[in-house]
Automatic annotation (TrEMBL), chain A:
This is ABC-2 type transport system ATP-binding protein. SMART domains: AAA (SM00382). It is a peripheral membrane protein. Residues 17-247 form the ABC transporter domain. It comes from Aquibacillus albus. GO terms for molecular function: ATP binding. Gene3D superfamilies: P-loop containing nucleotide triphosphate hydrolases. It comes from the Bacteria.
UniProtKB/TrEMBL annotation, chain B:
This is Transport permease protein. Residues 62-289 form the ABC transmembrane type-2 domain. It is a multi-pass membrane protein. Residues 1-25 are annotated as: Disordered. It comes from Aquibacillus albus. It is found in: Cell membrane; Membrane. It holds the Pfam family ABC2_membrane.
């Protein structure tokens, strides 16, 4: 139960989560199909993937809620299957859907969890109030959770998960459906937890979120990890973004396409708008040259933008590449 | 903070953070603050779950309708509508009917245990319970404890009203106590059937449907409302093997002082059989859930 690492920990003890070959089948369907995972202590690990990718299933297995069909995992050195109780005392889970009692008030929910975890009546009340204050919910303390806004629900949910600050916190899509302000609040909570030393494994459908929070990201699709690395590595591997260019004169588009293709060394897409072109670029520096080249050729650009690759693009790129390499996980290098 | 306007909501990241310094500090503090605690034992966690169930009654008092209003309505309706026709006088019928209708009421409200559980499972909160380092059955034990309170409440209301209407248990106070004890034991055992179904059924409606389908014939084709001797022989046989009839016989006998050891044994035997089958089944399903 001692949460401070001794100094001479060996390398292996540095891992909060170590899983190999995790498989979960629902009937014929392999919801999770051989996932390997190494999460270092005190870091945020992001699971990025679309709906149905197997994120929730993986988290539920790691949180002892779902039996694993094959594979093995160690949570802070404890075997997931053999030492379930020990694992449970070190982890905490905030599920994808509200995991508090919506009929009760925020205060009652927190007191309830604190009591279950062994706090005395007085401690429980004190802790509940501290948490409500810290999460900006003091005014809603005596309101039933079902009357909370989406962001408030999420916060009370996370508060319930850290009544006793866990060593590992699982957050399943903590910000899906939240407004930007609430999302920032959740991010702040995650950052504060990590500063304290908690390891956070979160799932998300937003590239941006993984980018902001996670030290490492696993991109997961159809139950498999199709790419893994830091956000920088992932982006570098799929290009730094998509360039959109709009021309004044649509007649010059073929010419512009040729110039951009030469400069950026990539294929250029012609969009349905007759003045528009777009391209995935791997090196943002080249974009300036390419635009300059258009100007030199007297092609007037009315509008251009260089956006972060969207999750769709990440997937498209990664899944295409995955089929190329016959289903092997991409080890992305920077 | 409770109701951020749209404008507030579109604050940018930096604005938001600079506005929230005090919150940031208290956030750090609350995370760093280590609470000395020891693992709660099974009794404490069960009582905590019971406390939650009681709180829910506070917020959803309609829950108690079935335990209070309905039995009163039933008792009044049957006594005065059918009393004359079935037993010749309402007062005579009340002596016969009250123990039976008491069983029917309690038996019917046992299904709420399953419904509550089913609700928890369908919402995420069940996942939280299952990921906590607590004695796992305490979720169920806590709920069953509160149900016992609910059953006692319903039974007391009915007996109280009965006494006002002219119910005179020949078995006296002791007889009524024995009857209550038997009833609570049987209700406790029945709850396990509902917890099992609560784990299996997909929706609350489905669960209610099944329970109605089972409980309705079971309570009506019994000796709750009429003396089986007035029935055709084949139906008499059905009524006699119906466990509800056996329970009613035990409770009616206790209240009126003519209970036999055999009557009591039947109730206990049936309760034991149900618990032995359904308690482990519930726990098994609970561990394996999903
Ligand atoms: N209990 C279940 N029974 C059957 N199929 C399931 C169950 N849970 C999840 N699945 C399926 O497994 C796949 C992965 O689901 P999930 O882990 O919830 O994905 P994600 O969280 O990434 O959206 C989906 O195709 C889903 O339909
Ligand atoms: Mg999910």
């Amino acid at each position: 139960m001692n949460r401070t690492n001794t100094k001479n920990d060996v390398d292996r003890d540095d891992l909060a989560i170590e899983a190999s070959g995790l498989v979960k089948k629902f009937g014929e369907k392999r919801a999770v199909d051989g996932i390997d995972l190494k999460v270092r202590r005190g870091t945020v690990y992001g699971f990025l993937g679309p709906n149905g990718a197997g994120k929730t299933t993986t988290i539920r297995m790691l949180a002892t809620l779902l039996k694993i069909d094959s594979g093995s995992a160690k949570i802070l050195g404890h075997d997931l299957v053999q030492e379930t109780e020990a694992v449970r005392s070190r982890i905490s889970l905030t599920g994808q859907f509200a995991s508090v009692d919506e009929d009760l008030t925020g205060l009652e929910n927190l007191i309830f969890i604190a009591r279950l975890l062994g706090c005395s009546r007085r401690q429980a009340k004190e802790r509940a109030n501290d948490l409500l204050n810290a999460f900006g919910l003091e005014e809603a303390a005596k309101t039933q959770v079902k009357k909370y806004s989406g962001g408030m629900k999420r916060r009370i949910d996370i508060a319930a998960s850290i009544v006793i600050t866990p060593d590992i916190l699982f957050l399943d899509e903590p910000t899906t459906g939240l407004d930007p302000r609430s999302r920032n609040q959740v991010w702040d909570i995650v950052r504060a937890l990590v500063k304290h030393g908690t390891t956070v494994l979160l799932t998300t459908q937003y590239l941006d979120e993984a980018d902001q929070l996670a030290d490492r990201i696993a991109v997961i699709d159809k139950g498999k990890i199709i790419a893994e690395g830091t956000s920088g590595q992932l982006k570098a591997s799929i290009g730094s973004g998509r360039l959109h260019v709009r021309l004044l004169n649509p007649d010059l588009r073929p010419q512009a396409q040729q110039i951009l293709a030469d400069e950026l060394n990539t294929s250029i897409q012609l969009l349905s708008d007759p003045t528009a072109l777009s391209a995935l670029v791997s090196n943002a520096d080249r974009v300036a040259y390419a635009l300059g080249e258009l100007a030199r050729s007297n092609i007037t650009v009315t509008d251009f933008s260089l956006g972060q690759p969207s999750l769709d693009e990440v997937f498209l790129t990664l899944t295409e590449r995955q089929t190329d390499s016959e289903g092997k996980t991409q080890e992305v290098q920077s | 903070m409770t109701n951020p306007s749209l404008q507030e909501q579109i604050h940018t990241d930096t604005e938001n953070r600079s506005n929230n310094h005090s919150t940031d500090d208290s956030l750090d503090q609350v995370i760093t603050n280590y609470i000395p605690h020891s693992r709660a034992n099974g009794i404490k966690t069960s009582l905590t779950f019971a406390w939650r169930a009681l709180l829910k009654i506070k917020y959803v008092p309609e829950q108690l309708m079935d335990a209070t209003i309905f039995p009163i309505m039933f008792l009044l309706m049957f006594t005065y509508l059918f009393g004359g026709a079935i037993a010749g006088s309402t007062s005579d019928y009340l002596q016969f009917l009250l123990p039976g209708i008491l069983v029917q009421t309690i038996v019917t409200i046992t299904m709420y245990t399953g419904i509550e559980l089913n609700n928890d499972i369908r919402k995420g909160i069940f996942d939280r319970f299952r990921s906590l380092p607590i004695w796992r059955p305490s979720v169920l034990v806590g709920a069953l404890l509160v149900d016992t309170v609910r059953y006692s409440l319903a039974a007391s209301i009915m007996i109280g009203l009965g006494l006002v209407l002219g119910f005179r248990p020949d078995g006296g106070f002791l007889g009524v106590l024995i009857a209550m004890a038997l009833l609570l034991i049987f209700a406790f055992s029945l709850s396990w059937i509902w917890t099992t179904l609560g784990m299996i059924m997909r929706t609350e409606k489905a669960l209610m449907g099944v329970s109605m389908m089972v409980m309705f014939p079971l309570t009506f084709v019994s000796n709750v409302f009429v003396d089986p001797e007035t029935l055709p022989p084949w139906l008499q046989t059905v009524v006699e093997v119906n466990p509800i009839s056996l329970v009613v016989t035990g409770i009616r006998g206790s209240m009126h002082g003519f209970v036999t050891l055999e009557d009591i044994s039947w109730v206990l035997l049936w309760s034991a059989i149900i618990i032995v089958i359904f308690a482990p089944l519930t726990m098994y399903l609970y561990q394996k859930k999903k």
